[in-house]
User: Fold this.
Amino acid sequence: MSTPTRLAITDPLLQPFQLAHLTLRNRIMSTSHAIGFGEDGMPTGRYQRYHEAKAAGGIGLTMFGGSTNVSRDSANTFGQLSASDDRIIPYFQEFAGRVHKHGAALMCQLTHLGGRSQWRGDNWLPTISPSRFREPLHRGFTKEMQVEDIVRVVSDFGQAARRCYEGGLDGCELHIAGHLIGQFWSPTTNQRTDDFGGSLENRARFGLMVLEEIRRLVPQSFVVGVRMVVGEGDSGTMPDEEYLAMAEILERSGLIDFFNFTYGRIDTEVGLARYMPGMSLGLAPQLRPVANFRRNVGLPVFHAARINDTATARYAVSEGHVDLIGMTRAHIADPNIVRKLSDGVEETIRPCVGATYCSWHGSCIHNPAIGREDVLPHTIEKTDAPKKVTVVGAGPGGLEAARIAAERGNTVTLFEAASQAGGQLLLAAKLDMRRDLIGIIDWRVSELERLGVTVLYNAFAEAPEIADTKPDTVIIATGGVPDRMQDIPGAELGTPLWEVLEARSPPDGDVIFYDGTGTTAGLNGAHTLATAGASLTYVTPDNTAGAEVSYIERPLQMRAFYKSGASLHPDLTLRRVARAENRLLLSFENSYSGETIEMSCDTLIYEHGTLPVDELYLELVGAARNFGLPDLTAWTSAQPQPKSDGEGFDLYRLGDATSSRDIHAAILDAARLCTRL
Assistant:
């Protein structure tokens, strides 16, 4: 890392912190999460490289292994690791070596899911809990634990912690909220009448036994903490006062070194969406209750929940609300946050926009290198043979292509037909709960300014204009236009969502919104229009609204949908549209029964993806040395495209100019092509 700037030396985020026997180089951390990169429950190369990038980027502490299982009857249900046998120790040792060589600390989260598990998981074993219950989210009925089960699981926790220590890790934390220890805490899920139920002290007993066993098996220098909520919020089953009492019990025990505080509940869809907040909620939505709670404890406090930007993180630390601030998803967007802070280039940090793409697809919506560190670098290297690169279209894909090509040292010219950059994303950002998407564009526009890229707005590029740039490479990123469903008779009587958003006002009268894709555009579009005043009926061929929306985003979008007054009709495929006096008559077919259902409305609005704007690409194909086609082996491995024979230029297209996909796909196309261009 380069010499810190004067500002960096005084930055609260960059001050070292003494955590028990462990010195951390700064106050920024990444909390444990289940990224899903493991193989057979082990943190193999891909998993390790993902965290190593954060360590190389300067982070003080990276925690991994969200919900790492300690027992065989805590099933792998969402891609967790398993520390239930010694097989994991060599992986831990390799992992620790990777992270420690960059100066960062490494810890693992341990848990038994209890009733949050599922009997259909990897081992097909009955799930266990203090008392029989069924978690709404994971839906499995549990077996009430016998005392012998309690003794076994306590031992399993201790052995898992031993494996962490022998694997060279710096510490571990126990996940409490909603998991087995938390199920013992809760009077709702713990109805026992023995020494493990009833009073607060009895309900705390199991967790304390686990910590005592861990401390028996690892040295005092090994850091141990807990991740727990400070309250559950609306519809909570355990009072906030009891959470405070539990924290005091833990602190008095002398068995832990830190608290990792969060807020909310994880056993329902809406609860989980609020516990792991995306852009549907504001920044740092849990910081206030955590800050209030920490006044009652003396141990160091960690916290992470939509701390996306360094300004919010700096405030949390400087005001003493936390000791370490978790910027977990922010580091998925940019693992080099600390390095950029230290170098005094904070403005170049790629922002987390809260799209929760990482929770659903295991990669950042606009940092495709996440999870692909073996082929896509987080830091772009200069080329030894600069070229002239011409890009047409300043949507997400075109901007990314121009940015990476310029970072490589190429001379880049970017044509954009509109008066500003953004493409379809400008419309997406008009939707309720999606406005932060504009950060994807704003950051890239700023980066192009920094790199000195020539951007020509209001410039409708055609073959002559492209030829004038004398390009070696031409990249077509012209995006798409709404698919107007021409295969459906009468569909021309409807209006695509795109045009309605551009009009900026909802239509009058009865509206039928037909969502033929099930993506977030359709569900968000429907409740955005209904909230703005449209009398709206949502119809989809899928069995639910927003079938392709992430499990983090969909619950809050559905809540907004129902609050808007819109009505929902699933399982219906649009077959025909016709005029009937002053209204439209729509014919649908039920996907299961084949029955014809007719509805009428004043306005039909639809979302059906896009068709590529590819006229320019097709015009240029004949003049291109490579006929406009990439070598797919090189493309998928982000290697240089094979050299083409003859004079002229190589031609490529990406994003929706090829086919209707999403933001990440367009940016990934650009990264694969341009990283070694």
Q: What stands out?
A: The radius of gyration is 27 Å. The mean pLDDT is 95. The first strand starts at residue 17 and ends at 19.
